[in-house]
Amino acid sequence: MSFDPVRDILEINVLLLQNIHTVQHQISQHRCKLYVYQRERWSLDEEQLLQNLLAQFGKEDLKKISQIMISKTQRQIYHRAKSETKSLIAKIK
């Protein structure tokens, strides 16, 4: 296998995009599970659910929780991409 930096970078970018999509999907699934759980438990509509979450956590805490989730997701993507990049480079060598 020949060394082609452009092709390798494109492959790495494809892997990164796939990972981002996967993690975003997982976050959406967890968020949906929380919504469904709270809706079923308390029979809430979207507006009531949002008000309930705001009452539970407060606006600033919800922002902090969102930032923590985003940071955690970014770290997961970075580490997964780093690992897959090492694997890809090992295959190329």
Automatic annotation (TrEMBL):
Q: Which CDD domains match?
A: SANT
InterPro entries noted in UniProt: Homeodomain-like_sf (IPR009057), SANT/Myb (IPR001005)
Q: Where is the Myb-like domain?
A: 38-87
Q: What protein name does the entry list? A: SANT/Myb domain
Species of origin: Hexamita inflata
